[in-house]
Design a protein that fits this description.
The complex is a heterodimer of chains A (399) and B (64). Chain A is built from 15 helices and ten strands. Chain A has a five-stranded mixed β-sheet with strand order 1-2-8-5-3, covered by helices on one side. A three-stranded antiparallel β-sheet of chain A has the order 4-10-9. Chain A has a two-stranded antiparallel sheet with strand order 6-7. In chain A, α5 packs parallel to α15. The termini of chain A are far apart. Chain B is α+β, with helices and mostly antiparallel strands and 64 residues long. Chain B has a single domain, classed as Alpha-Beta Plaits, CATH 3.30.70. In chain B, 27% of the residues lie in helices and 22% in strands. In chain B, strands 1-4 form a two-stranded antiparallel ribbon. Chain B has a two-stranded antiparallel sheet with strand order 2-3. In chain B, a hairpin with a 6-residue loop joins β2 and β3. The longest helix of chain B has 12 residues. The chains are: A alpha+beta (399), B alpha+beta (64). At the A-B interface, α3 of A face α1 and α2 of B. Chain A: Belongs to the cytochrome P450 family. Chain A: This is Cytochrome P450. Chain A: It comes from Saccharothrix coeruleofusca. Chain A: One of its GO terms (molecular function) is iron ion binding. Chain A: InterPro entries: Cyt_P450 (IPR001128), Cyt_P450_B (IPR002397), Cyt_P450_CS (IPR017972), Cyt_P450_sf (IPR036396).
Amino acid sequence: MTETLHPVLPTTRSTPFDPPPELGALRAEKPISELRFPDGHHGWLVTSYDLVREVLADRRFSNRAELQHAPITVGGQVVPTQPPAKPGMFINMDAPDHTRYRKLLTGQFTVRRMNQLLPRVEQIVAEHLAGMRALGSPVDLVPNFALPVPSLVICELLGVPYEERERFQRDTGKMLSLDVPFDEIMGALERVERFVADLARRKRDQPGDDMLSGLVHSGELTDEEVANMGLLLLVAGHETTANMLGLGTLVLLRHPEQLAALRADPSLVDNTVEELLRYASIIQFGTGRVALEDVEVGGKLVEAGSTVILSIPAANRDPDRFERPDEFDIHRSASGHLGFGHGVHQCLGQQLARIEMRVGFNALFREFPDLRLAVPVEEIPMRTDMGIYGVHSLPVAFS
Amino acid sequence: MKVEVDKERCAGAGMCALTDPEVFDQDEADGTVVLLDPSPSGEHQRKAREAAHLCPAGAIRVVE
């Protein structure tokens, strides 16, 4: 008797901006389908908007790291199931632990608090655009704009002293770079971990008006928990926003009529950012959840212990939810997109990310009215095999 | 229309305050939902429905 071999997760794109075409075919025919994982696990792949949203909102599904199977290999290697989350790394916890940690931060990330950061974000963006101008055309947008802007905003939130920011940025930049050898990346990661842990300890004696100080003096957390929460904010807020800035710029440059409309009316930027989050969904291989009990999803029985991959890119291109889903259209209402996820784990920093993108795109295209690609689009290295999609570099020209 | 919120379920993502800051706000301390107007009228009714739909934690209920 032969065992049916389920398909593996489709990961090959045929264009730079569209998800792998097989995902669209699955969404139309089998919005929940059986999926084979590299470690041999048999789980599920969900591709429709309604079902992705349903599973993410269902508290019978867990986000604990130690229960999940990875849907892809990394460098040809099977990724083993991860150990349980370290204290404070609440993204990979469930209620009530997740709730306890998250509630200590949600007050810091409100719409109002993030709007108060606007002048600082504007200043950081302006400084980097001036830096690009000083370097001259052509220039790589990624290391000079997309990566450092969110990194400095996180420095601001965490309360990294000014004189230590350059070192911090060098290491966080290295952690995300393709050109850096693996052991150097690991070295940078260790230095950043030590730095944040040390910073948390210093905030105990010399508190400031920043998030780490707030956490330390909440009286509810150990130094280890504070350090891990700080690292989580860094990891969650840097690579994601950086890639939305880089990839978003490329999407806009490749849609000149849309970019012209945005330039003519900068108030369209709010809508543009939502549409970019929908159209260019950067969380390209997931997210994942694990059934804690048997659950019926879209008429299929998902057994307890099964990992379910929720395809954000496929859900955000679902024609049943968005008209002309494969068209990039900054005039549409993309509200309800799943770019920040859904459910209790929905991105904590989303209001900050929105502000960074709104300020970033409007200032970039105002400062450089004739910004254009400096190389043919085929030569731009895309992050095809990274968990977070985007561009590795983006050479641009201006006059 | 009557709007109800559940602070226990709230995940503090801020979608409601973003969608209609005249009906919803966020608590200064923990970011959870604060209902400013439990009986919105006019344009705010449509926005309240949208906020209920967008809420990631299912913490907003609209009773028509």
